[in-house]
Specification:
This protein is α/β, with parallel strands linked by helices. It contains 14 helices and 11 strands. It is globular.
């Protein structure tokens, strides 16, 4: 990720409309951009997909005080790379912010990043609305968002009350898409009652149940979700990034991004310096630690049951930090050796993916 601090002076940008950036913000951007890259490799190769869309519903100014780019502008650079190699695809970025000054700035930044480049299949549209009105008015984008398309929506509020979760729920219910939602868990005590009111969730007994309630509603409309936690230097949870997808393969690509950016850590926390990844314990030690947890969860939840590889894969991906490539060697084979599961060998001893497993 390059730095563009020179653009602040070159474009005469008023710094009072720019924000400083904490380390967790940097890693949040890295995480989402890494996923978008994985996602692009998949959907650009699909011949039936014509429109590829990224929506940043609370985009800020597109650049921080230190010159690092924001999420939407980093995604723009990714789209530029891919639109050259896939000229038959239409790449669309939609940015929205309630502050017109920030919209003016991101427009300047994007215009500069697009200058001297003739990308006829890459378009950017700008909106200046409250995030809730923007999400409610999403029907104006139906020509881009409906049909055989690939869409990611990013919702990144400053606190829990800024976004009505019902609008996110309705969006994911209406469109075939994936969503990154910054769920401000640290603000739930103060503003959690709004969720109960907006989502008609009278069944909630305590505000600590709000996240699971939201995920259960998502599950009822056949979507899957996974949360990654961000903590402060005292290891107090600030927020979770909830990822929502209609397809388990979205979770597969998400896990690849998590391991690439966070190196196997269960959560990000702020007291690691900017060379955080080099300070992580080795990935090997994390694989061993997380494998033991995953093995325990699997045998505990499905004792005396016979499962297909697909059911095991889905459970591991949705309930643990483990990624797909670790399931056979780090979970199944050790459990077989330990005598805790039996491989049925329906298609031979070496075929693990087309087989069933009896949990003892």
């Amino acid at each position: 990720m390059e730095n563009y601090v020179y653009l602040i002076k070159e474009l005469d940008i008023n710094k009072k409309f720019l924000q400083s950036k904490k380390d967790q913000t940097l890693y949040k951007i890295k995480y989402i951009v890494e996923y978008v890259k994985n996602w692009l490799f998949v959907f650009c190769k699909r011949k039936d997909i014509k429109n590829i869309n990224f929506i940043d519903s609370m985009c800020n100014a597109g650049i921080y005080l230190d010159g690092d780019l924001g999420t939407a502008t980093e995604v723009l650079l990714l789209f530029q790379e891919f639109c050259i190699n896939y000229p038959e695809k239409n790449f669309n970025i939609f940015v929205n912010d309630i502050n017109i000054n920030r919209i003016d700035i991101i427009k300047k930044i994007i215009t500069k990043l697009q200058s001297k480049k003739n990308f006829t299949n890459l378009k950017v549209q700008y909106f200046n609305k409250d995030v809730n009105f923007f999400l409610k008015d999403s029907h104006i984008l139906d020509n881009y968002l409906k049909g055989m398309v690939a869409t990611i929506l990013f919702v990144d509020p400053y606190n829990f009350k800024a976004v009505n979760p019902k609008n996110i729920y309705e969006f994911v219910k209406t469109y075939y898409c994936e969503i990154f939602y910054n769920f401000f868990s640290s603000d739930i005590v103060r503003n959690g009652e709004l969720y109960i009111k907006n989502m008609n969730a009278e069944e909630i007994k305590t505000i600590n149940d709000i996240e699971e309630n939201f995920k259960s509603k998502i599950k009822k409309i056949n979507k899957m979700s996974f949360s990654y936690i961000f903590k402060n230097s005292k290891k107090t949870e600030m927020y979770k990034i909830i990822f929502i997808t209609p397809n388990i393969e979205g979770i597969v690509k998400l896990k690849d991004a998590i391991w690439k950016v966070f190196g196997g850590k269960l959560f990000y926390f702020n007291d690691l310096n900017k060379n955080q990844l080099s300070l992580f314990n080795s990935e090997i030690s994390f694989v061993e630690e997380h494998s033991n947890i995953a093995k325990s969860k699997l045998t505990h939840n499905f004792s005396l049951q016979t499962l297909s590889f697909k059911k095991i894969k889905d459970f591991i991906l949705l309930k643990t930090i483990m990624k797909e490539g670790q399931i056979i060697n780090n979970i199944l084979k050790p459990l077989i050796s330990e005598g805790k599961i039996i491989k049925m060998n329906k298609n031979g001893k070496k075929n693990y993916k087309d087989d069933d497993y009896e949990i003892l």
